[in-house]
Amino acid sequence: MRVPFADQGLTKLPDTLTDEQALFVGDILSSGYFGAELCEIQPGDTVAVLGAGPVGLCAAQCARLFGAGQVIVADIDPWRLALARREKLADVTVDPGQKDVEQAVKQLTHGRGADSVIEAAGGEQTFQMAWQIARPNGVVAVVAMYEADQILPLPSMYGKNLVFKTGGVDARHCAKLVELLEKGRLRTDFLITHRGPLDRILEGYRVFSQKEDSCLKWVVTPRES
Fold it and tell me: pTM of the prediction?
């Protein structure tokens, strides 16, 4: 197979990594890493991640890699929050349906707010929640996709002096991510909740889109004979 400009977009995998271990390097893991990188995390910082989907979970893991002392993950899905705790991706999880996220973050930070916030949810209220839970002079990294334009309510934000950063998936660190996976400093196995052969791909799309059986990611395996 001939791939034009392959040296610009492909990363050679070492024999020590399986295909599944490296499967999410070019998109989901890169997105999570990008979100954490944007935050300029300092050792011991409190980082809040909105959204415990695949990107949010990777962002939480990468925040720890960058030196976060406390990682808070918020999501409306109890199963995903339990996964974040079980896999030690979050120190604390918050369900907005059970507790006010801003109040919870302030309690966990002695009233200051999160040093940085990674918005990976893309919900109707999560952009507003992101700047509300950030401390003054904090960083808000937006890696979520939205279905509608978001608004900066500048009068309400006056005095917080926040820095907003955003962008598309930055996959320039793929070689570094492969190295971190190989060394065991990052992992993505927790994202794989379902597997199925190629001839069941339509079922996979349905299960994934409807989040049936707590589906995070459906990995496609070779077609069954």
Answer: 0.93
